[in-house]
Amino acid sequence: MLHLIVFLPLLGFLIAGLFGNRMGATASEYVTTGFMGISAILSWVVFGSFWLGGAEPFTVDVLRWIQVGNFSADWSFRVDTLTAVMLVVVNTVSCLVHMYSIGYMSHDPHRPRFFAYLSLFTFAMLMLVTSDNLIQMFFGWEGVGLASYLLIGFWYKKPSANAAAMKAFVVNRVGDFGFALGIFGIFVFFGSVSFDVIFAKAISIAESGTVPDGPVFEFAGYALDQASALTIICLLLFMGAMGKSAQFLLHTWLPDAMEGPTPVSALIHAATMVTAGVFLVARMSPVFELSSTALTVVTIFGATTAFFAATVGLVQNDIKRVIAYSTCSQLGYMFAALGVGAYGAGVFHLFTHAFFKALLFLCAGSVIHAVSNEQDMRKMGGLRKHIPKTYWMMVIGTIAITGVGIPGTIFGTAGFFSKDAILESVWVGTNPAAGYAFWMLVVAAFFTSFYSWRLIFMTFHGKPRASADVMSHIHESPNVMLVPLYILAAGALFAGVVFHTPFIGSHHEIGAVDPHYLEFWKGALFTGPTNQILEMFHDVPKLVKWAAVLVMLPGLAIAYWFYIRSPDVPVELARQHNGLYKFLLNKWYFDELYERIFIRPAMWLGRFLWKQGDGRIIDGFGPNGIAARVQDVTARVVKLQTGYLYHYAFAMLIGAAALITYIMFTGVK
What does pTM read for this prediction? Predict the structure, then answer.
């Protein structure tokens, strides 16, 4: 069954990619979507075996891969609860995106290539989440990077799409360099890249509370003891996670990725690329538990990302960019949870986020499809009556992401349960950044509510701001696009209440660890004695439990006041605080800052080495210089070939005189 789950998307990629033009676009769509449907159904079967059946983690060997000396990395599938969760997330969202794309991409002439890339993207992510060692994970890691490059730049005739694809590829190379160094460090420290070996040694160290003595590490010329080496290794792994999951400082590629088709945005943001970093930290949780410093750094970056992205989302006007920055912010929530040791809560939010984020992006695609590919919300408005099904689906996605629910009850959306779990976890977190993270996340929740309802009000309410021609062609999406929205909406509403117990446990008395939680996550996440979050998780002040709801309501109220009751107010505020408005509109000027610090110096250095180093020195004194001298000499020699007999006779006379003179002076006989 595991082989079918993983290799059916690869088979779909090969069929559509190699034979798509012969088969036709329709056949390519149905083949790839059908294979993804089978993979999705089987993924839920695997998940159910862990959720309901208490299945034990197991490994499926595929083939021998790398064997060099004492280094071994076989190709195997590691199947545990974390793997099962990721299989459900990846394959369910990918299947629905494939189905949705049949309608959304119906007028594109390159549909076989598009569906082939989607299936390749899915296969690469499946390789990542089923990996049994870090080398196999790195293979999938680079595979999703390649697939994202191909899909973001799918419309390659658009310069902006090419630039966005290249930007995503380059920024991720920065993170991947750190990830590669982290893998090297893991091998040196633990003597293996196999998860079983790494986790066994890491858990042994965590339970003993001491790091064994060993040789001193050297990194960047500095000697490190074992504890410091572990911190550096974890930070390097997190550097890789920062690139893939678009965390603060390495986030700049994510908004530009909107240049790809909208289904691509949904797949990247909900199930594949950006979840890879969260998965990496969760998978390596036994190692991260060995470095409190590294976990503190993860918490700081997660909280900062959540706040930063939420501030930028407040003023964006492109409907897809608003949702993109919300993804960046929600990823910050996940990392903040992982940083304080609440791995179950972080993965739970990844699980619920997949439903409502895919829903929001596909609803945005439905809106764009209806208004003739317009993405600027300032040119929309009044669409509620024209596309009511899309409207209500987007409202469901909005109440899920803003965390609508009643604390202490079963009434709440998926986002409510998982976001509340993160806030509670961060509140009881023990690392030095936990307090900072809690308040950053609370503020981010307020901003999330504001910009999410702002999107709803600007897009669907008020007076129409589109041209009469556009308004006359507005139409609801076909069922092939709406059915995926209905399925995702069900997940956005009910995934929290249905699945919260295995992910985060149910309420128990203080000091007790929920046995259901431990049974569900056995062998998948670190649940050792140092994880105090499990014991204090639900016992927090009521104000903390109500925090997300209490800040969500003012965000909704202000958005309603600004964009329904008094639309002139935000315009006036932007005019009065023009500097702050431009600062947020231009994304804290990170692109401009990076251009000055990195891009321009790199371009200058490249141009200097090209013109001066390569052109003037290497070519000038090398091949081109030698060729020029040969041409110069031959040009002068050619001038001797005049064709006049008396010139040749004169040259012979000079030669004879020179020879006689030489003999006279040297005495040669």
Answer: 0.91
